[in-house]
Write a structure and sequence with these properties.
heterodimer; A: mainly alpha; about 0% strand; flat; B: 10 strands
């Protein structure tokens, strides 16, 4: 192959691409934030006694983890505004779609974490006089947080990667800008490789942070 | 004497016509007995006979299908959540698998409930916990996490944790079943001292015959959903009446 790589093009347009990173970070942050809140709520509802609430949670989860993200995003950006007679910016649509999708995935991670705590822990807490809520607060959640971190990291990484999809509603994140520049410079290999490297770098740093969080745990499970 | 019923003037635990089902499966049927204050009752029987389930019914961890359970006069079955939580404060429980909280040090395991439930201040709770750790001979492990303790040590911490709530009744569910012989003795000695020094009312599920002979006031044999025989421990081991009991004793003494 006689292709001459010219990564100089990346340096030349670095400030422009960096602005894309800002969008990626902003959308990732808010999507992860809302996905976490939705996830905790859904997981708590799923272990509650009310059957109606449990069913609602299951319907939500099955709905939002089965709709392909591209369909969801396009529906939110182009259909929802017509139905709701409102307007959504591309960034708002992106955060909404990624939060709804991420929330469904995160809730399963939280539920898995809570279910990983043996039933005998609950019995021990009850026998000491703790109520259901006290047991959750002092015994189950402090342990479940750590059991939840590895699967939750996967959910968050998926969310960050899915920010690339938001280019289809013209969110000017890294991938979108790489494509824009490619049209002008005819350097697809360098620009797409560069975009990939930027995402990989972001996610490597993020996963490293999550691993540090896992290490806060001073105790070992028994 | 009525089979199974130990009638006493000062009954601390009263069980009347208890029936326990899992789905349609009847586990225990028409169980009645009493435990007087300061006495030790041991439940024996083949595995799966429902003796551990019976123990969990007594502090309301299991719902019963019929009958009545009272501990110090408090109803356990059908009690409101609040009343059950109050009644449980009089009852300590120790499990076969210790069930310590792995995310807390030994000391925190012991002081958590006194601080959160009994609203003791921290200083008082810690003082009391250290006394209990002295009693189970584990003071030097106060800051250790459960994962670094041996099975026998974990079980002794679990006993200290239950005692920190100052219960009047202790339930032991096969406390030594998962332990090596040496560690069994560590734990059994602590339980023995609870009897001789504290005159604690206790109900135990255990197969440690020598221990039962020395410690139990009454031994109750459960098989096929009901009480087969209840006797003082000397009579139970030396002169059992029922064929089912004799058969059971032959099997466990062979071990």
């Amino acid at each position: 192959m006689h292709y001459t790589w010219q990564f100089g093009v990346l340096w030349e347009y670095a400030p422009y691409l960096a602005k894309g990173v800002w969008y990626t970070l902003k959308i990732s942050f808010w999507s992860i934030f809302w996905a976490t809140i939705i996830g905790v709520l859904l997981a708590s509802v799923q272990i509650s006694k009310s059957k109606a609430l449990r069913t609602a949670a299951i319907v939500y989860i099955d709905l939002f983890r089965t709709i392909p993200l591209v369909c969801l995003l396009i529906w939110i950006h182009y259909v929802l505004p017509i139905l709701a007679r409102t307007e959504l910016t591309p960034v708002q649509s992106a955060i909404l779609a990624l939060s709804l999708n991420g929330g469904a995935l995160a809730s399963e991670a939280f539920r898995g974490g809570m279910e990983a705590i043996p039933h005998t822990q609950k019995q021990a807490a009850f026998s000491l006089g703790f109520s259901q809520l006290g047991t959750l607060r002092h015994v189950i959640i402090p342990q479940a947080i750590f059991a939840t971190l590895p699967p939750l990291t996967n959910v968050y990484i998926t969310t960050i990667k899915n920010v690339t999809i938001t280019m289809i509603v013209a969110v000017p994140e890294v991938m979108f800008r790489a494509q824009e520049l490619m049209v002008q410079t005819f350097r697809p290999l360098e620009l797409y490789t560069g975009a990939a490297i930027i995402y990989v770098a972001l996610i490597v740093v993020f996963s490293y942070g999550m691993r540090l969080l896992e290490k806060i745990r001073k105790w070992d499970p028994i | 004497m009525e089979r199974g019923a130990v009638l006493g003037a000062e009954s601390f635990v009263t069980v009347r016509n208890l029936t326990k089902k899992f789905g349609d499966n009847v586990i225990l049927e028409n169980i009645s007995f009493d435990v007087e204050k300061g006495k030790v009752l041991v439940l024996c029987g083949p595995s799966g006979c429902g003796k551990s389930t019976l123990l969990r019914c007594i502090n309301g961890l299991e719902q019963i299908a019929g009958g009545e359970i009272r501990v110090d006069g408090d109803r356990i079955q059908g009690a409101s959540t609040g009343d059950l939580l109050k009644a449980r404060l009089k009852i300590g429980m120790v499990f076969q698998s210790y069930n310590l909280f792995p995310h807390m040090t030994t000391l925190k395991n012991i002081i958590l409930a006194p601080i959160q439930i009994l609203k003791q201040d921290k200083k008082e709770a810690v003082e009391n916990a250290l006394k209990l750790l002295d009693m189970v001979d584990l003071r030097e492990k106060a800051d250790a996490y459960p994962s670094s303790l041996s099975g026998g040590q974990r079980q002794r911490v679990a006993i200290a944790r239950a005692l920190a709530m100052k219960p009047q009744l202790m339930l032991f569910d096969e406390p030594t079943a998962a332990l090596d012989p040496e560690m069994k003795d560590e734990v059994l000695n602590v339980i023995q001292r609870l009897r001789t020094e504290e005159h604690m009312t206790m109900i135990l599920v255990t197969h440690e015959i020598h221990f039962v002979k020395d410690t139990a006031d009454q031994v109750m044999m459960i098989a096929d959903r009901e009480i087969v025989e209840t006797a003082d421990s000397k009579t139970f081991f030396e002169n059992p009446k029922e064929e089912r009991t004799k058969q059971f004793l032959r099997i466990i003494t062979k071990e």
